Amino acid sequence: MEDAIGELIERLFKGDRRALARAISIVEDGAPGSSRIMSSIYGKCGGAHIIGFTGPPGAGKSTIVDRVARHLRKMDKTIGIVAVDPTSPFSGGAILGDRIRMHEIAMDPAIFIRSMGTRGHLGGLARATGDVIRLMDAFGKDYVLVETVGAGQSEVDIVESAHTTVIVEMPGLGDDIQAIKAGILEIGDLFVVNKADREGIDKTVAELGTMLDLREWKDKEWKPPIIPAVAKEDKGVAEAVEVIRQHMEYLTQSGKLDVIVTKRLVEDYHELTRDLLWEQVLKGSKATEVKRLEDEVRSKKKDPYSAAEELVKSFDQ
Amino acid sequence: MPMDKRYRILVAKPGLDGHDRGAKVVARALRDAGFEVIYSGLHQTAEQIVEAAIQEDVDHIGLSILSGAHMTLVPKVLELLEQNQASDIKVTVGGIIPEEDGEELKKAGVVGVFGPGTPTDDLVDFLKSSLGVEE
């Protein structure tokens, strides 16, 4: 075979959406060529504003994403959407249904939508979601909107990938103590309380407000706004889009954007090194040692801690 | 990075009929067999289906049609796949399809036609062998 991956990367840079789709699959599957694709596109990343949308199931994340995308299109921006749904822990299969709420924008050539299963990864995203975001960024999208799985309290991975995190809530979920627990409410840069035509909206907005006021906000610090919305009727969406724009302005002017970007580069480097080292170990001279210790752990002759230590020590000999 | 290939299938309902129970049963059975199913929802045009298949990079498309419009909808999907150089994505049709129509659709390029009452296991086996899934 010729250099199929090289050709794919070239087509990707020319704006071929089939090449983007294929590249995403290769990276998602961890198939041969995925490292090469990622290292080739890395230099082209950084142009997109990455916005995460998280919140409980049924709050209307997909509908909000759909509406936000439409507003951004009116400003002539190009958009990538990554929608993550849970993978079955039993079969490894998944039903990915977020496109259902995005029909009207799905035929817009400036919008590219991709659904992903979590494939066993916890935290609200799939392992490869970060790479898929980078691919859309490098493809030239102005915005990448990321919808997490319906999140409860600890699905906070999205902060590691997004510049702006939008928490989509709705009235009538739990009492005010839920709102001061640690977790997803801590990571919001903006709260959209959807389905604001329902009973209990004032109470929910007030509780979120109280929760935010339990800490002190420094001068010029970003305090997350709370916006009531009825996404289906497009109410509150323009306000949300404006706040998202202001948040990016804040990140840029305060110097926070540089800090985030640099931190992520270093984290990526560490994570990739870990992956590659482990791959090297599995292929290297200690492969039999890895297997032997794994068997001992499996038969409960050794605990995982001692086995890991023994393996690492064996490299000194 | 560990290799973790999943086969992806678009389950779509083209045209005007609003009966999606069959499509949902199939989607669920495929999920339980380990496939990643992208479910399109109702009332999809051929254009929307092909665009979704391309963006989602699916390995296969399953069309569910109960309206009787299969002889126009299915060829349109096949034609659009070809126009987009995506004929490598094969198509299976399920629903109420008279036998002679089924034969004609197969001649046009559809790989499988399944009627009501098909056990979902048969469908799963058919797709696995059609896609060359290793167990």
Give the averaged pLDDT of chain A, no decimals: 90
Helix fraction of chain A, binned, reads 40-55%
Helix-and-strand structural type of chain A: alpha/beta
Q: What series of H and E elements makes up the topology of chain A?
A: HHHEHEEHEHEHEHEHEHHHH
Please tally the β strands of chain A and state the result: 8
Second rung of CATH, namely the architecture of the largest domain in chain A: 3-Layer(aba) Sandwich
| Radius of gyration from the alpha-carbon trace of chain A, in angstroms | 22 Å
Instruction: Give the end-to-end Cα distance of chain A, rounded to a whole number of Å.
Output: 42 Å
Q: Give me the number of helical elements of chain A.
A: 13
Low-confidence stretches of chain A: none
Q: What proportion of the residues of chain B form beta strands (DSSP E)? A: 15-25%
Tally of individual domains of chain A = 3
SS field, number of helical segments of chain B? 5
Please tell me what the overall shape of chain B is.
globular
As an assembly, this protein is heterodimer
Largest sheet of chain B: 5 strands, parallel
How do the strands and helices of this protein lay out in sequence?
The complex is a heterodimer of chains A (317) and B (135).
Chain A lengths: L3 H10 L3 H13 L4 H8 L7 E6 L6 H14 L4 E7 L8 E3 L6 H4 L4 E7 L11 H11 L3 E5 L10 H4 L2 E6 L6 H5 L9 E4 L7 H13 L12 E3 L8 H18 L1 H28 L3 H12 L5 H11 L3
Parallel strand pairs in A: 1-5, 1-6, 2-4, 2-5, 6-7, 7-8
Chain B lengths: L7 E5 L8 H12 L3 E4 L6 H10 L4 E6 L4 H14 L6 E6 L3 H10 L3 E3 L5 H12 L4
Parallel strand pairs in B: 1-2, 1-3, 3-4, 4-5
Helix pairs in contact in B: 1-5, 2-3
